[in-house]
Amino acid sequence: MSNITPQTSQNDAMRYSALSILANGLRGNRGWTPAWREPEPKAEYDVVVVGAGHGLATAYYLAKEYGLRNIAVIERSYLGSGNIGRNTTIVRSNYLLPGNVPFYELSMKLWEGLEQDLNYNAMVSQRGVINLFHSDPQRDAYARRGNAMRLHGIDAELLDVEAMRAMAPMLDFDNARFPIKGGLLQRRGGTVRHDAVVWGYGRAADARGVDIVQNCEVTGITVEAGRAVGVETNRGPIRAKKVALAVAGNSSQVAAMAGLRLPIETHVLQAFVTEGIKPFLDHVVTFGAGHFYVSQSDKGGLVFGGDLDGYNSYAQRGNLPVVEDVCEGGMALMPAIGRLRLLRSWGGLMDMSMDGSPIIDRTPVQGLYLNAGWCYGGFKATPASGLCFAHLIARDEPHPVATAYRLDRFASGRVIDEKGMGAQPNLH
Ligand SMILES: Cc1cc2nc3c(=O)[nH]c(=O)nc-3n(C[C@H](O)[C@H](O)[C@H](O)COP(=O)(O)OP(=O)(O)OC[C@H]3O[C@@H](n4cnc5c(N)ncnc54)[C@H](O)[C@@H]3O)c2cc1C
User: Fold this and answer.
1) Bridging pattern class, strands 129-133 and 301-312
2) This prediction's pTM
């Protein structure tokens, strides 16, 4: 594991602290400077990272851990317009399979030190993630998962129904179809404010000299003699010694620009938030008898989500049948929420891989690197994904905790089927 320690930003004048808030407040808040620059893209970089989600974290760690300076992150829209600013903010490392466990635990450890590292308040809230179970076989499955976690040194507790009642009394425990029998709790799991993660990584990468180029769409990948040597964009060509793709639901389209066909399908996932209410739910809770999960934001809204929309789409919005389906799940779990008004819903483009696990790997095109296949769960992966992708790009070898995330596993059969769903991306 790489040594991630808090460091001072290069731009000390911009260091955020209680004192700087006080001093700026007394001066009418006129002393703040922009959190990142708006540079014009240069003609050439050492590394061009496409996509400003995991791409921002990648650029930050390339600069911080691997000493690269001449880096650009190319984003077709504004920072946070992708899934990194659209998710339901849940972070956890409650995985089962050896290919996944160390990776997600590294991510959890990075979350735990992220605010100090970035000098940015990302509202990391380790409020606990509870997966409910509703039958004896499901309890066995969660006990197995919890044991696997503990064998890897990760916290996990199996709660009985009385413990659950004490922690979340508003749940419908005695629902005739889905009685709650207990839950698997990871106390270190929780939520992190998603846009603060974008802004924190963006600001910290910029402070280390990374050019963040917004409103710049990659329209082609320049390949010469089998090697990626740059990208075409709507603002002109940019040469690069290495090109790294982290474009989530657009992965298939962008990889096709270099002649690659990926084992990825794009689906829409929706999220929802209600009007604000008093503190009601202290933890993140997932329903074990349907696809519904929920937490309460610091503003008081219940933030929840459920299943994919169920067909392929590149539209960042979903459809009403899934709204109904998700709300039914919510009503089955906690009928009291039927009295709340839904304030907003939105959708994001999920890069669904065939086994539900991600890809962080080189591609058959030299100098072209791929970070994709995050499905529902890539927000929690952001720090480790950025670090491991940076490691791969800088060293041309996988980071020790990401060796299983190979692109060729779909050909060799070494899939990481965490959910046991088989090759059905719409089910992962
Ligand atoms: C509704 C919803 C809820 C979710 N909830 C959770 C959760 O609670 N916990 C969790 O761990 N995960 C969650 N996820 C999943 C998580 O958000 C994603 O897996 C993760 O953010 C993916 O990161 P990324 O960097 O690959 O993608 P993104 O953040 O989408 O970044 C990719 C970027 O690439 C840009 N791009 C695309 N094409 C081009 C191009 N041609 N040129 C330039 N730029 C381009 C896009 O504009 C985008 O900004 C959720 C996702 C959604 C949609």
Assistant:
1) unpaired
2) 0.96
